[in-house]
Amino acid sequence: MRYGFLGPETTFTHQALLQALAEIPAEPGASASETVPFSSVATATTALLAGDVDALMAPIENSVEGGVSGTLDVLAATDSITIVAEQTVQITFVLAAREDTPLDELTTVSSHPHAQAQVQGWLRANVPTAQVAASSSTAAAARDLAALDAESARGRAAVCSPLAAEHFGLTVLAEGIEDHEGAITRFVLVTREGRIPARTGADKTTVVVQLPHNRSGALLEALEILGSNGVNMSRIESRPVGDFLGRYSFSIDLEGHLEDRRVAAALRALHRLCPVVHYLGSYPRVDGTQPEVREDFVDHAYDEAHAWLERLSGMITPADPGAAI
């Protein structure tokens, strides 16, 4: 198996992938898994669809900044991939440079935009005059800084993980610089379409839906469908469809699995209401939390209702083909 990730090595995405691989039982005689870094989630997804990698790990949401738009948009753009697992990583950042440098001498600080947003308060307070530059990942910021010669690196620093700073031989100027201690980023493991993990009882289902255009109350109708089937949402985010202004899709995480009758019933109803329902997968929750399901929403309640209606349907007198309607 070849696994892609947002690289280079030592990104938080790489850490999430290594966590996931450590949980996969090793098969006798199987060769070691190969990890392949990519510069963006989009390029990793292209490689996945082309068969160059078998799966990819991508960040999808952060407890401080919310959804990772790049990943959400890529996942919504194709119906040929499936989420099969998730991982979470607690996030902490350091400010690192090629050599020990006073903070007031820094002129440029680089990092991934999502990381920048999580340390912006610290940066404003401690390096207010430094320019903030974007990098493709936190580890890329550290790697690129380490590759500069001494003169070019003067006055430059990177916001990255402690592991990246150590890996690329940088000097840590400050640690624990995140504005919110204990921030967590959630990652998803994605494969090509064709495999849905079996229900565990502690699962999550991810879908992207587009509502009927210019239909008053369409979002409320969709939410009522979920509520009437006892399906709780753990995340909902809007993303522009991209065809014209004012058109949005909704990326939604549901508590439960496609095998759950209540989830299946809700998805069937959403499919009737919405012009697009993009199913992205049902997979085990990383925290193992099982939802509290009301008695009228458990599987046997749906089965009993179905059997009852079947009995009633069997009592219907067949229509006379020759009778006038």
Topology at a glance:
Elements: E1 2-6, H1 12-23, E2 34-38, H2 41-50, E3 55-62, E4 66-67, H3 69-76, E5 81-90, E6 94-97, E7 108-111, H4 113-126, E8 131-134, H5 138-147, H6 150-153, E9 156-160, H7 162-167, E10 171-175, E11 184-192, E12 203-210, H8 218-228, E13 233-240, E14 248-255, H9 261-273, E15 276-284, H10 299-313
Parallel strand pairs: 1-2, 1-3, 7-8, 7-9
Antiparallel strand pairs: 3-4, 3-11, 5-11, 6-9, 6-10, 12-14, 12-15, 13-14
Short description:
Helix 8 (about 220-230) runs antiparallel to helix 9. The protein has about 325 residues and is α/β, with parallel strands linked by helices.
Task: Describe the protein.
This protein has ten helices and 15 strands. The longest helix has 15 residues, at 299-313. The model has no long low-confidence stretch (mean pLDDT 92). Helix 8 (218-228) runs antiparallel to helix 9 (261-273). Strand 1 (2-6), helix 1 and strand 2 form a beta-alpha-beta unit. The strands form three sheets. Strands 1, 2, 3, 4, 5 and 11 form a six-stranded mixed beta sheet that branches. With 325 residues, it is α/β, with parallel strands linked by helices. Helices cover 32% and strands 29% of the residues. The chain folds into three domains: 1-90 and 183-195, D-Maltodextrin-Binding Protein, domain 2 (3-Layer(aba) Sandwich), CATH 3.40.190; 94-175, D-Maltodextrin-Binding Protein, domain 2 (3-Layer(aba) Sandwich); 196-311, 2-Layer Sandwich (Alpha-Beta Plaits), CATH 3.30.70. It has helices at residues 12-23, 41-50, 69-76, 113-126, 138-147, 150-153, 162-167, 218-228, 261-273, 299-313; strands spanning 2-6, 34-38, 55-62, 66-67, 81-90, 94-97, 108-111, 131-134, 156-160, 171-175, 184-192, 203-210, 233-240, 248-255, 276-284.
